[in-house]
Amino acid sequence: MTKRTYIIPLFFSSQLFCQTEETFNSSVEFGVSHGTYANVCFQSPQITWQQSEGVTKPVYSSPIGQTQFGFNFGFFMWKPLSNTMALRPGLESAFSNLCMRQSPKVRARSLDINIYAPMMIMLTRPNKHGIIYLARNMSCYLTTKQPYVIVGPKLSLKQFDKGFREKGFKNERCLGVMIGYGIQYEFHGTKVSPEITYSIEATQQNKITTQQKVTHSIALSINVF
Question: How far apart are CA 159 and CA 112, in angstroms?
């Protein structure tokens, strides 16, 4: 009998798993916002009959019952809740011109107080290599760049001028919701966030014909904090 020797290699390996978490900064920040907006109210088309040269013809009213445009300025608080979500309650004043498309048209000036508390939902992680191109062969480097979605409630208090109220109209309290999109840019400690938002609000005062007044608004604003 022959005795044989075998060499069996044994391999040992080890793996180390680690998870890198982004540092969560829960500190509260305050900032200012400025922007412009426009809104419109729709109504059911109405038909009136007018007689011209012995012929009665229907005249249809515009489906737009009211238009309003102006600008706003306000203050807000930025409170991070997690790495992907933040709360931004704010208070702003808005100055605008209003036109109710009746026959004849009624015009007014309005001072609005807007109160809102939307949630900011981050779509991506902060991009620490963001670049904004300003011109040919010129660029501005950012600390971070991060897009987000805006969702939350909104309350508006509208104070109209005296002439408008003397015609029988009332000040308004509007309650609604707002949604939007924004991008947060950070320039070495200073954050700038341009935003576009859409809001829909309802009120019982100053009804458009017999309908409840529903306002659709588009706003462009910029936040600095």
Answer: 6
